[in-house]
Every structure is written in C-alpha cells, then in structure tokens.
Amino acid sequence: MPLIIPIILITPAAVAIYKYRDEIKDRLDEIEKDIHVDYKVHRVTDGDGSANADGKYIRCLELDHDFLAQNKDWQLMSLGRYLSQLSPGGNTTPQFLKKHLEIAIGKSLIQVLGKQYGSALLPVLGSDSVDNTVSKMATNMASVITAKMLVERAEDDPLQDIGLWNLSLPEMTALINLHRAHSSTGIMARSSLEIFRTGEAPGSGPLYFDRSYYEDDDEDKNDGIPNPFIIEKHFEEEIQSMEEQMKKVHGSYDPNEIPLMGKNVPIDERFLPDLHFGWGDARCTHTQDECLKNKLMALLLTKLGYNTYLCITDKEDEGVFTVNYKGKDIHHPEEFIVALLDSDHKVEVCPRATMAQFGVAICAKEKDGSFTNIPFSAQVRTGLDGADESQPTYFAAPHGGMNVIIRGPLIGENKQCDLQFYLTLEGFTGYFADHDADVPWLKRIQLADSYNRQDTIRAIRMISIVSTVFNAIATDMNLPFGGYGLLGMCNDSAALIDYALRNECSTYPLLSTGKYLIHVVTYLEKYHDALKAHPSGRRFAAVEDMEHLIHAAVNLPTDLHSSPKLIANTARRYLSTYKGKSVFQITNDSVKVMEETLKRFEKYESSA
Question: What are the per-10-residue average pLDDT scores of the chain (608 residues)?
C-alpha cells in the first residue's frame, strides 16, 4: 500500500510531503536543534481521563453521549478530548513555540490521518487531492491545538468539529476520471486475475498458502494447498499447518483463545504523549481456531470462483481447482455451498456494513496502565444539506460486503466461520476472512434480510461472476489497486449482487462511476453470450444470473451526483446503513437531517 505522508507548514495552504520532503526534513532537523532537548508536550487529566479545564475544548470527532451511556463498560473518549488534554512544557516562549508546535503536532497528526486514510482514498481522489484534504484538516487541528495551548484567542475556537472532511461526494466525480487519466501509480506487480487465481491478496498477514509469495530459500513456509483438495483429509491438515506457522510467529497458540488485537505502539511520545496506534485492550471477534478456518474457507471459495473465469473464457484446459467433499468433485463455489447445506450445515448470506477503519486504530494509555479507546473515522460530506442549507450531513466512511456465515460439523461445535466478499484496496475482488476487533462501535449492520436457500445459492454464484468481471476489467485496463475507487469500493461489489437479487439495495454510499459501470455491463454481456454458447448446459443458471446483474448495473444508483429524483432513495439508503446509534455525534445529527429529507422528498417519488 503506498504511503501518503503529508506534513504541515505554516502557510495559508497545506503542502504535501512528497513534494517538499527534503526541505521539510532539513527544517525539522533545524527545529530539533532549536527546541530545548528536554522539551515535550504534557498530557494533563483530572484523574478520570477528562480534559483539564483551561477554558478551551477542542471538538474533533465528537462521540455521542447516548452511545457512551449505553457502553459504560468501555473506556472511550473522542480525539478532541485527548487533544484538549495536551499542555506545553518547558520555558520556551509561546511566540517561538506556536509555529514549531504546528509543524511537529501537524506532522504527528498526519501520520495518524494520512498514512492509511490517504492511501485508501488515493484511487478515488488522486494523490494531490488526498494530500491537500488531509493536510488541511491536520493544519486546522494543529492550529486549534496550539492556539488552545499557547494563545488564548477566541477566533481560534472551532465552530464545528475539526475532524470533518471538507469534501463532498459530488466533488469526487471529476477527480476520479482526472486521476485515472493522469495517474501512473498503483500498477501492481501481480494482476487482479493472478491474485484471483491464487485465492489470496499479498500482504494479507503472516499466513499464505501460495509458496510463490515467498523467497525461494524460505523453507519454513508450506508449498500451497493440494489440488484436488479433499475436505475430509486436507482441511484439518491445513489448519494444523497454519497452527504451526502461528506458533513460529507468536511463540504460542491456543485454538480456543480469543486473542487481543495486537500490540499498542506509541505514535510520538514527545508531542502526542500516551497516544498509541492499536486497539487498547480490545479482543478479536473470533477464537484463534475460527480465524484460521475463516481464512482457509475464504481461500477455497475464491479459488473455486476462479474456475468461473476459466469456464466463461473457455480456458478450463489450463487446469481447474477441485474440492472433493463426501466423494463428490466440486468445481464452483455454489456447488460447495449446496454440499454443505445438504450435510447438516447452515449457511447465511446477506449484505452487511460497519465503519471503515482503513487499518487505523488509536488509543491512549492511562496512568494505571489501562487503555482508553479513541474511535476514529473519515467523516465525509454527503452533498445533501438540510432544508435551510446550513445543515451539512456527513457519513462515517463505511466498509461493506456480502457476508457469508457458515456453521456446522466442518467448522466445529458452537463455532462459526465468517467470510465477506468485496472489492479490496489490495488489488482484487474476492472472499476474505471476516474477523475484526470486538468493539461496540464496529458492530455489523445488516442491510437486508438473510437470503433464503435459493437466493443464497444464487448470491454465491453471482459472487463468482462479479469477481470474474471486476478482476478481468482491472487486469485488462491495468487499473490501479484492482479498480478500487473506479469500479467502486467495497460496498459497490456487494450492492450489485443485492440489487440483482432484490431489485433494490440498501447500501450507502454507492460510488461506482458511470464510465466504469458501462465497462461492467459490456463485460457481463460478453461473458453472457460466451457462456450461453458453451457446449455444456450445466452453467445455464449463471447465464440467467448475468442477465439480472446487467439489469442491476444499469439501474444501480450512484451517490457521486445529487439529483432531486434520487434524494429520497439516497436518504432511505443512508438511514438503512446508519440506523441505530452511531458512536459519532455528527453521524446521529446527520441521521436526523436525513429523516427530515426523506419526509420532504418521498412524496415526490414516481410510482412508476
């Protein structure tokens, strides 16, 4: 993943570190020499983690009071509350320190804001836009922080939450195609189709199945998975092999342990004391054994999905991947799901969403050694304002996909396997293990009722088709990041399937652009005709599903354009995605505005 690490300069506008990184490094070295060696910012609390009252409070990603009241077992605070606790140390004059603190604190903040969020939004916005957007937000934060710490000026008090992105969805439209036209970044070493074939994305953790990801002299890794893969023989063998790898990586392994989410790493003890990257004391949603089975099942279904590409393009002579279960050879994911359903397993499929983290989690270490979690999100303007046009609405950037939940003998008693299908920033569209931090602000929101048996099978088959189309387009057009941000984001790949099944979807936002949706339709038509002419009639159901997917791609709404015709639909999908209590106050305020917007515009919707 490319790193976008902008830095704050004391000018009216922010400047990206990629452009001026050498000059900035020299300036920071100079600042380090000027500032007292023992100088550092202090964090002052009143004993319960709240801000020390000094007449100013920084509003930044403020948390909802009702949410906090409902989750008293958790130590939570907003980023603004943490920033309000910072106080200067040393004897250096405020006039001298203000400009230097803006640089230093801005630099540290941008490491939090820009490293992951910048690269995640890069394909959508283009690098310049991301650098400027993130840098301006960090400039704003740094100015407010230093004003609060050093200069008591009323005009520095923010009128609104300084953690909000001053960028709306409609403003992204031109930037998307502009970035595609001029960008040469993000060309991957492996094509999306090649990743699709291997079944897993590079960088997905310490456990890979494909030996080709490793150096030739690395003898500690396994040699890939067998083909054919006999469930009764190889499933537990692969789990045991993964357990051995886990022992080598972590030193120990307990299959029934619910592990902590990882180490908490200090960000910058000098200027952001006690602030850490990490999940604090949070644990995973799954046991270690469940996590391994999530990963293995995601790999098997993705590799089976690649057979759909081989079938459609008449390349099956290259060698298909086979799973054998209860003596029957299986070549497609829906066949595997049917086999599981017919052998005392339960399979649940439905679209779900949660708040996207983009790999960022932050927390503050307290004096007693405990950690206070600081929920973090990219808050982006929807482009829809309230009736008086002074109420902008925001959304916490979501992560969504098509969830597949499997329970039964293969997974283990009282255990479940959680997978999710989506288009990923890592460069391909496929299945992924769906375990995460078990924290109350990341609970999954179900965007539709779980599908019945027939639609479950259809959804799994459509996942293979959409994977084939998205990965083929990304490969043929050499799209950066596997088409992420151009073909859509994680939400869009699942929404396309949900719309094809239900003739509607409840996902917000939808970010597929018209230009690339046309490519999706073109590829679906091409594959539809090729598969229809295939000498084997066993894939006829896939032909019918392609027709539904074409209809969905043509009619799927987009949130990159604000239109009175679609406002009610937009508000309805927004409310579906963000229903319930969000951890962020701005999201809940936006929900109220969207409810009013829906009442205003739904009476004008066409009944046709």
Answer: 26 30 48 52 67 59 91 91 76 48 53 46 41 51 50 41 56 45 50 88 50 39 74 93 84 90 86 89 94 94 94 86 96 96 96 85 93 89 78 87 96 94 88 93 92 97 96 89 80 94 93 82 92 69 92 89 85 90 89 92 75
What's the length of the chain? 608
Give the torsion sign (CA, 125, 128, 129, 131). Answer: positive
User: CB of 398 within 8 A of CB of 491?
Assistant: yes
> How crowded is residue 154: how many other Cβ atoms within 10 Å of its Cβ?
7
What is the CA angle 18-109-95, rounded to 5?
100
Given the structure tokens 């000059």, which residue do they identify? Answer: 23
Domain boundaries, the chain: 192-253+284-356+397-562
Return d(Cα 462, Cα 545) in angstroms, integer: 7
Report helix, strand or coil for 168: strand
Residues 6+ apart with CB under 8 A from 182: 126
pTM: 0.80
| 103/101 Cα distance (integer angstroms) | 5
Place of tokens 């789990």: 239
C-alpha 146, offset from chain centre: 32
